[in-house]
Amino acid sequence: MGVPQAMAALRDKAALVRESLQKSQAITESMVSILGSFDHRLSSLETAMRPTQIRTHSIRRAHENIDKTLKAAEAILGRFDLTRKAEAKVLRGPHEDLESYLEAIDQLRSNLQYFTTHKCFKRTSGIITHANNLLTKAISKLEDEFRNLLTNYSKVVEPDRLFDGLPDSLRPSATSPGKRNDSKKDSDNQKNSENAVYTPPTLIPPRVLPLLHNLAQQMVQAGHQQQLFRIYRDTRASVLEQSLRKLGVERLSKDDVQKMQWEVLEAKIGNWIHYMRIAVKLLFAGEKKICDQILAGIDSLRDQCYAEITANSVSVLLSFGEAIAKSKRSPEKLFVLLDMYEIMRELQSEIDYLFGTKSSTEMRESAQSLTKRLAQTAQETFGDFEEAVAKDATKTAVLDGTVHPLTSYVINYVKFLFDYKTTLEQLFQEFEESDTEAQLKTLTTRIMEALQTNLDGKSKQYKDPALTQLFLMNNMHYIVRSVRRSEAKDLLGDDWVQIHRRIVQQHANQYKRISWAKVLQCVTIQGAAPAGGGGILGGDSGSGISRAMVKDRFKNFNAQFEDLHMRQCQWNVPDSELRESLRLAVAEVLLPAYRSFHKRFGQVLPMAESGKSPCKYIKYKPEDLERMLSEFFEAALGFLLLVWPVGPWGELLPSMYSSRNSGCAEDWDVTLRAGPRRGPVVNSCWLRGDHRVPLANLGVKNKGFENVGEVITNSTFVQDISLNLGLKLAGSSNVGLMDQKLNEQ
Description:
By secondary structure, the protein is an alpha+beta fold. It folds into five domains: 2-153, no CATH class; 159-387, Monooxygenase (Up-down Bundle), CATH 1.20.1280; 393-502, no CATH class; 523-629, Monooxygenase; 638-744, no CATH class. 64% of the residues lie in helices and 6% in strands. The protein is built from 22 helices and eleven strands. It has helices at residues 2-92, 98-117, 124-153, 159-164, 183-192, 209-221, 225-247, 254-259, 262-294, 299-326, 334-354, 361-391, 405-419, 421-430, 436-459, 465-484, 488-492, 494-522, 547-568, 576-601, 604-608, 622-629; strands at 536-538, 544-546, 638-644, 655-659, 668-672, 681-682, 706-713, 721-723, 728-729, 735-738, 742-744. Strand 8 (721-723) and strand 9 (728-729) form a beta hairpin. Helix 15 (436-459) runs antiparallel to helix 16. The termini are far apart. Mean pLDDT is 75; it is low at 174-187, 527-534, 539-543 and 637-745. Component of the exocyst complex.
């Protein structure tokens, strides 16, 4: 019973499901029918609305086009308005308001670019032509403004302004006229110059530089680079060259240099060294500074401008150095060549910086070439000096046997060389010399040997062999003393000094032997044989000599001593210590012998002569001889008046005065040598007799000359003295100075 009931229940449920599905199908079909009706209606509506939609889209597009057209028209009208305003500013010119004028040019350039890219308008070409013409006119006025502004503010730099930019030690006012630091101090100043502070002058006021920069930028944007280049180059180059000319720079050819007197040329070289320092560290540096500011951002044009602005000025300066380096070599040129080499070495880093671009290659290489040429010429001149010393054939004899001018000249030359020791070592390194100090020692030794050889030859001019030895003694002593007091001692060594001191002593001993041997024989008892007649004068020793021999001995002694006194009082030993030691050496031999001879026979001879006066034979007491010996080696006093001009830096300018006066026994000659680092040197000075040389005899006038000093000397040659004015002389140390203080070296 249970299963049939369940099956019946399932059949009932299935019937209900079937009925529900049938109802759903009917509803679905009804909805499909309704939706199909809606689709048909919407399609009809859409067909009806399409024309309206098309008209609405056209209206919207037209509105957008109208907006764009209005905006374009507004922009075009604005361009026209701006062009009109810019035109008004251009016509007024840049004088009233340069900044506004530059803005107007920028606006014109912008408008021109706009109309060039919008050529669809009918009048575009006309507008472009008008804008171009207006811009050309504006740039033309801009060029004029740039030229006027640059010209008006580019002024020639006065020398005083340049001097103000130098370190205190290098300013002309730093050295009072006629006074110079000694050479070592000058050398120290030279070495410290690289650390000195230089202040380039203000070539153009700082407030003007931005305006010039803006003008330059506008000209470049307008394509007027060449016009800008020409204006800037011509204006600044002219001012730079005028500034150098006002300072004293002049173009000199090799022929001009060859024709100049050495003294004039030497002064010009000293000035050239100052000019080079001022030009590079002040003028060229200042020129680069303003060039970098005005032409900032225009690198190629900037470098080319600076190169061409400075090209002629650099050429003028370097051509003088080249002319000196190529001129005929002579020993006196070595020091100025070294000075020139020093300044080129000092300025090398600045030159490399200032002229480091490709446009300035020629100037940089020219400076490097000059440095090497100066080094080469200086080295060759140094070598020539040794040969010149060895071959010096001066015929002028130093009559009193004093220090020869050649000796003084060579020793002073060597002393000055040691002021340049560092420079010489750098110079040798230019030619890859390994041991520069050893080479300097070798060259110095060879110069000394050449001098000694030459002096040996000159000593043969003397007929009196004693004077020959005195001459060699004086000169060798002067050499040794000078070396001991200079840096040459450290280089040549103590052994060299000791060897040559012994040579001095050898010449002194030879002088004593030659001069006094015969005189001593007259008062030497030993070896005297008794005469056959005339009576015998007894002595304590038991031996005796004849009266005739005693008379002859005194007579010969008197004659020989008087002859020596007369001649050798005219001879000169300029060094006071050497003079006294030589007198003492003679006295130590002569006076004891004479005193003994005089004591033994001076009292006996009158009795033997039966009361006759012995003065005919015994003319001198030992005290008389001692007094007369103190007069030996004292040449007659002479007077020398020295005059020299003073240059703008307070340096003593070179001068040479030569004269002959009937009041002097021989010529006198004075040569004042002045260089950029030292005072003048008297290389030669011969005086004889008690004579004062008046200023008029020098052939110069007081006007234009300062520092007149009067030197009194007892020598025919003035030795190593220094006035407080910086004057260096070569010759005797026994010197006095009237009206001025004398400082012995």
